[in-house]
């Protein structure tokens, strides 16, 4: 048990280590209601007579009162322990708002292509906000091959004709095409990939519209004689 003194009214109190630990050393005087750190005003022993030293985190209001330490009095009024300070409500609100803004920002970055497809006027705004490229959304399941044909060109070479359809209500990026020519045993004789530049001058397929494509290429005679069919697949590289 130790004795501390209120720096304002000089009232002496007996405090136990358990009491000090409960409120991290902060107490309120039961006589004048002054709040102070108890360990700064312990009654000094005759041998050491230490001078109280303020802690780094002590409020200026309490450090200014340290010079008022004096000898203890006989009276021991009731000592009130300071409750632990609870986080303020505004700190929780600020944290929730900040987290919400971060989530919205991530959603904006992930969905920027789709947003630009829905409203093309937003494209430069979205690009400036994220500092990144905004293109047409890539949705392979939205582009279907409605029809296709593989024929010999009278002028030489072979022709592949395709009709691609966008089933979405917004434009999507033009996909690439993989064309495989097969023989009677369904073995691939020739496989070729056509990029967007090879297929069309457009970089997208309009909403709920179709695009007709025609490809012309040459084949070696030994290969062309074995061709009996073809397979076409659209994809995004």
Distance from first to last alpha carbon: 77 Å
Main sheet: strands, sense, barrel: 3 strands, antiparallel
- What is the fold-level CATH name, i.e. the topology of the largest domain? Immunoglobulin-like
Specify the CATH architecture of the largest domain.
Sandwich
Percent helix range: 10-25%
In total, the number of domains comes to 3
Find the structural class using helix and strand composition.
alpha+beta
Structure annotation, total helices: 7
Account of the 3D structure:
With 237 residues, this protein is of the alpha+beta class. It has 3 domains: 2-81, no CATH class; 89-130; 140-235, Immunoglobulin-like (Sandwich), CATH 2.60.40. The chain starts with a strand and ends with a strand. It has helices spanning 17-22, 60-63, 89-110, 112-118, 123-130, 196-199, 221-224; strands at 2-5, 12-15, 26-28, 35-37, 80-81, 143-152, 158-166, 172-173, 176-182, 188-194, 204-205, 210-217, 229-235. Residues 60-76 have low confidence and may be disordered.
In short:
The protein is built from seven helices and 13 strands. The chain has helices at 17-22, 60-63, 89-110, 112-118, 123-130, 196-199, 221-224, and strands at 2-5, 12-15, 26-28, 35-37, 80-81, 143-152, 158-166, 172-173, 176-182, 188-194, 204-205, 210-217, 229-235. A three-stranded antiparallel beta sheet has the order 4-3-5. A three-stranded antiparallel beta sheet has the order 6-7-12, with no helix packed on it.
């Amino acid at each position: 048990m130790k004795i501390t003194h209120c720096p304002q009214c000089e009232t002496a109190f007996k405090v136990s280590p358990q009491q000090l630990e409960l409120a991290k050393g902060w107490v309120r005087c039961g006589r004048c209601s002054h709040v102070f750190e108890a360990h700064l005003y312990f009654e000094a022993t005759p041998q050491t007579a230490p001078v109280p030293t303020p802690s780094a985190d002590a409020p200026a209001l309490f450090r200014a009162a340290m010079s008022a330490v004096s000898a203890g009095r006989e009276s021991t009024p009731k000592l009130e322990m300071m409750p632990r300070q609870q986080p303020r409500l505004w700190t929780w609100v600020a944290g929730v708002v900040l987290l919400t803004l971060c989530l919205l920002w991530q959603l904006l970055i992930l969905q920027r292509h789709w947003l630009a497809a829905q409203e093309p006027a937003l494209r430069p705004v979205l690009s400036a906000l994220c500092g990144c490229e905004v293109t047409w959304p890539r949705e392979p399941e939205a582009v279907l091959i409605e029809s296709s044909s593989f024929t010999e060109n009278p002028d030489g070479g072979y022709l592949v004709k395709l009709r691609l359809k966008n089933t979405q209500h917004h434009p999507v990026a033009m996909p690439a095409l993989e064309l495989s020519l097969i023989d009677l045993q369904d073995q691939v004789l020739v496989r070729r990939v056509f990029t967007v530049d090879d297929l069309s001058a457009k970089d997208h397929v309009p909403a709920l519209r179709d695009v007709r494509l025609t490809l012309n290429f040459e084949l070696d005679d030994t290969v062309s004689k074995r061709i009996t069919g073809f397979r076409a697949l659209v994809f995004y590289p």
